[in-house]
Amino acid sequence: MIKGSIVELVAPTEPNGAIKYQSLEALVDWHVVEGSAALLLGDTLDAALDLDAEERLELLRRAIWQAEGRIAIIAGLSADALETSLEFAQIADEAGADAVLLTLPTTPWPSTEKILEQVEVVAAAARQHLIVRSSAQRIPAAVVEAIARIDGVSGFVDCAPDVARARELRALPLPEGFALYAGSDLTTAHFVLEGFAGGISTAGNLVPRLVRTLHDAALSGDRAKAEALQPQLRTVLDAQPADNVPRAVQWALIEMGRVEESTPPLALAHARDYANLRRALRSAGCAI
């Protein structure tokens, strides 16, 4: 079971979409040092990153080679078509990913039968542990329980915004070793304090140590420390422009010296975004 902060990594790219592999490898090393539990690659956060099968394989291979077992690498399988998810699962197996994550489709929202059928097919095809994520719908608790009982499924990511949902899922008779994860940085502290194994983080791209420290506090039951860190994390999240988080993350990483500069230089949509991000990251202790 993966426990702690799972960072949904923004892959560093050139303006033409080519991946900056040297920067990717440096980011993997950085997350190892900062204590992130796992990196999620190629899922919904990087939806604009249009990779063919060969490029996706290379992305995973380079990350896994650099990780050298020091940090778990999770391959995203999200796609509108089941056939593509199965292709991605094969690529993840060939690359040697530690786990795979399937984000359920949001439009059109499938029936319960279709959800379970899709998860069963992907779980049967995947060689790694499968984590399932629902990002836009509150799936009935009974369906989460049914997903948890499918062979090969080892975890579920829930993106609901309230702690009552965490308690509802924790009360389910889930199989031993099945992990629940928070789907948002905004709920991680409270969900992990309720017994979740960790959470998926976008803020971890920029402040991995802060996110890891919050997870560690919550996992150890230190409510006061975890809740004290949450506002600091919220400041970083609020500073990221909602219309293009991956671009803002890449710009900030360049400013922090974590990713090499692009040619032409990366620009954000609004002048205020630069100041907001700089202010938030400085308040979180980043040199920017």
UniProtKB/TrEMBL annotation:
Entry keyword annotation includes Transmembrane: no
Signal sequence region: none
SUPFAM superfamilies registered for this protein in UniProt: Aldolase (SSF51569)
Lineage: superkingdom: Bacteria
Binding site for pyruvate: I200
Keyword terms of this UniProt record: Lyase
Any one GO MF annotation of this record: 4-hydroxy-tetrahydrodipicolinate synthase activity
Record-linked Pfam families: DHDPS
Family matches, as InterPro entries: Aldolase_TIM (IPR013785), DapA-like (IPR002220)
A GO CC annotation given for this chain: cytosol
PANTHER family linked: 4-HYDROXY-2-OXOGLUTARATE ALDOLASE, MITOCHONDRIAL, DIHYDRODIPICOLINATE SYNTHASE
Family note: Belongs to the DapA family.
Protein name as it appears in the record: 4-hydroxy-tetrahydrodipicolinate synthase
Organism name: Sinimarinibacterium flocculans
